[in-house]
Automatic annotation (TrEMBL):
Family recorded in the similarity comment: Belongs to the SCO1/2 family.
Residue span(s) of domain Thioredoxin: 53-228
Cysteine disulfide links: 92-98
PANTHER family, alphabetized: ELECTRON TRANSPORT PROTIN SCO1/SENC FAMILY MEMBER (PTHR12151), LINALOOL DEHYDRATASE_ISOMERASE DOMAIN-CONTAINING PROTEIN (PTHR12151:SF25)
Record's keyword annotation contains Disulfide bond: yes
Organism phylogeny: Bacteria, Pseudomonadati, Pseudomonadota, Alphaproteobacteria, Hyphomicrobiales
Name of the protein in its database record: SCO family protein
Gene Ontology MF, one: metal ion binding
C-alpha cells in the first residue's frame, strides 16, 4: 500500500459524523499528484459555453428518503438546477473513493458560492449506497455539518433498503459489489467505481466523471457551460 496522508479535514469530519466514529480518511499520493496536474492545466480547458455537452440519459424517477425521513423523488430533486450527483457511503474506507468525491464537492461548492453564474444554479446531491447504516438520522448530522446558506445546496439522500435503491443503481450504471470474507460473510465494505454525474436542469445527464477526470476544475467548467445554456430556464432561482 502506498504511503498515506490525510486527504483533507473537510473530507474527514463529515464521514466521521456519518459513521459515528473518528475515522481518519487518507488519500494515496498518486491520485493527489494527478489532481494537482489537473489543476495546473486548468488554463487548457475550453471556455465555458464554447462547447456542447451531449445528452447521455435521463435521471430516472426513484423514491428515496431525505434527511428528515420524507419520501422524495430523485428526478424532482435534480430538476431546475445544474446538479452534480454522486453515490457514496459513510463507512467507505477506500481512500481513492468516497473521500475524494467529498473533497471535490466541497471545493467546487466553495468556488461556486463566489460565482454569480453558479451560486444560485448549482446543486450537489449524494445518494447513499448503504441505506441500512446511512439512515436519515445520520444524514441530518451530515447536512448540519455542511450547512451554509451562502453556498449552493448540498442534499443527502438514502433509501429504505438495498432493494429500494437497486433499480436506481442499475439505471445509472452504478455497479456495486458487497465484499465478503473467507466464510462468505459480508464485511460491510461496498466495492464500487467512483462516478459523478453532471445533470442539466431538465434532468438529463450531460457528463459522467470517473476518478481520472473528476476534478473541481473540470466539474465547474462543465457546470458553467450548462448554466449558460440554461440560464434563462433556471431564472436564478434555487429549487428544493
Amino acid at each position: 500500500m502506498t504511503e498515506k496522508r490525510k486527504y483533507s479535514e473537510g473530507a474527514r469530519a463529515p464521514f466521521a459524523a456519518l459513521t459515528a466514529m473518528a475515522l481518519a480518511f487518507a488519500a494515496p499520493s498518486t491520485p493527489m499528484r494527478a489532481a494537482d496536474a489537473a489543476h495546473a492545466s486548468v488554463a487548457n480547458l475550453p471556455s465555458p459555453g464554447t462547447y456542447v455537452l451531449q445528452r447521455i440519459q435521463r435521471v430516472p424517477s426513484a423514491k428515496l428518503l431525505d434527511a428528515e425521513g420524507r419520501s422524495v423523488d430523485l428526478s424532482a430533486k435534480v430538476a431546475g438546477a445544474v446538479t452534480a450527483l454522486g453515490f457514496i457511503y459513510g463507512h467507505c474506507e477506500d481512500a481513492a473513493g468516497c473521500p475524494v468525491a467529498w473533497s471535490i464537492f466541497e471545493e467546487a461548492r466553495k468556488a461556486a458560492a463566489a460565482e454569480p453564474l453558479l451560486a444560485d444554479r448549482l446543486r450537489l446531491v449524494f445518494v447513499s449506497l448503504d441505506p441500512a447504516r446511512d439512515t436519515p438520522a445520520v444524514l441530518r448530522l451530515l447536512e448540519a455539518a455542511e450547512q451554509d446558506a451562502a453556498a449552493p445546496p448540498w442534499i443527502f439522500l438514502t433509501g429504505k433498503s438495498e432493494a429500494d435503491i437497486a433499480p436506481l443503481l442499475r439505471a445509472m450504471g452504478q455497479d456495486i459489489g458487497y465484499e465478503r470474507d473467507a466464510a462468505g460473510r459480508r464485511t460491510g465494505a461496498i466495492n464500487h467505481m467512483l462516478k459523478v454525474f453532471l445533470i442539466d436542469p431538465e434532468g438529463w445527464v450531460r457528463e459522467i466523471y470517473s476518478t481520472a477526470f473528476l476534478t473541481p476544475d473540470n466539474l465547474l467548467n462543465d457546470a458553467r457551460t450548462l448554466a449558460l445554456a440554461f440560464g434563462a430556464a433556471s431564472n436564478g432561482k434555487r429549487e428544493p
